[in-house]
Amino acid sequence: MTAKILIVEDESDLARAVAFNLEKEGFAVIVGGNAEEAFRLLEEQRPNLIILDVMLPDVSGYEICRRIRQHGSWKQLPVLFLTARTELFDRLLAFETGADDFLTKPFAMKELIYRVQCLLRRCCREESDVLVFDELEVQPAAHRVLVSGEEKNLTALEFKLLVYLIEHRGRVQSRETLINSVWKMESDVFHRTVDTHIKRLRAKLGKAAGHIETVRGVGYRFLEKAEPTKSDRN
Questions:
Q1: pLDDT digits (tens, 9 = 90+) for 195-231
Q2: How far apart are CA 147 and CA 135, in angstroms?
Q3: Domain with 154 in it: what CATH number?
């Protein structure tokens, strides 16, 4: 099935250029120039991926991404930001609001196409195995996490972080490794971001939080048998 890409970009020349090159690669492309059009097209067209500009005339791309992650039907949709902003803060904010990838302008069209292909492969690869660890059940293909049968509402980034830790279970993953592999960034500036996401992930996992162990001064490790949490010990 042909993947459908939604481009939300108010620079019409750039939008046309990106659409033209994606269509040459066999993608179906739809274009919107502002937030209102973006939400209408998301509802009507059900795209497989969205390429999102940050600076739009009505609502920022950050806010659009936040709303996507809060919407039940769209929250797992891959989001690739395109922006002229190059500061580390802007990249951090993009990932905090739920972005899967971030590309600064000007950019090489080949790199954009490669990133789109990678995101779609990651999103759509078939992973039929259900991962079960005591009360924790993770369904990679369905993007579902259940604790004692109750579904937990994880963001796309939290889900990626959990699955990465599970895939490397039993081995300590440093913050640098997690930044490079989950956030796709190469910087030691964002150690606190990793810690913040681990804290949020544990809070959502509740009684299954003990599967994620903190190795002080190093990083984090996923345990097949959970450590007792504070609430378990009280």
A1: 999 999 999 999 999 999 999 989 999 999 887 765 4
A2: 5
A3: 1.10.10.10
92 and 165 co-located in one domain? no
Task: Using the predicted structure, report yes or no on whether residue 174 has a pLDDT greater than 70.
Answer: yes
The domain boundary, picked from 61, 95, 124, lies at 124
Count the neighbouring beta carbons within 10 Å of the beta carbon of residue 164. Answer: 15
SS (H, E, C) the chain: CCCEEEEECCCHHHHHHHHHHHHHCCCEEEEECCHHHHHHHHHHHCCCEEEEECCCCCCCHHHHHHHHHHCCCCCCCCEEEEECCCCHHHHHHHHHCCCCEEEECCCCHHHHHHHHHHHHHHHHCCCCCCEEECCEEEECCCCEEEECCEECCCCHHHHHHHHHHHHCCCCCEEHHHHHHHHHCCCCCCCHHHHHHHHHHHHHHHHHHHHHEEEECCCEEEECCCCCCCHHHHC
Residue 139 pLDDT grade (very low, low, confident, very high; cuts 50, 70, 90): confident
User: What is the number of structural domains in the chain?
Assistant: 2
